Q: What sequence folds into this?
């Protein structure tokens, strides 16, 4: 899984500043939020846990829309069906 690789593989230590973009729903509103990979504390089979200013948040993988490098390049996008399982080249 791409998130595991970016978070734990020493080869990608510079990836800690990459950004995970995900959809957050509040009532009928949809908000796009961003967190740095360095703030991911746990990865489960269907979710990841991130440390935010308001505490630990569990985010299901299906809410992730993009993973963006620290220099703004899209590393993975949900709309790219060829990478639909978080696979891709880092």
A:
């Amino acid at each position: 899984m791409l998130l595991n690789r970016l978070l734990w593989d020493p080869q990608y230590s510079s990836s800690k500043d990459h950004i995970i973009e995900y959809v957050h729903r509040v009532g009928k509103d949809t908000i796009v939020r961003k967190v740095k990979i360095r703030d991911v504390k746990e990865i489960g089979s269907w979710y990841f846990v991130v440390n935010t200013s308001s505490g630990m948040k569990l985010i299901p993988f299906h809410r992730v829309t993009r993973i963006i490098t620290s220099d703004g390049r899209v590393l993975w996008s949900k709309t790219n069906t060829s990478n639909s399982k978080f696979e891709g080249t880092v």
User: Anything to note?
Assistant: The first strand starts at residue 19 and ends at 26.
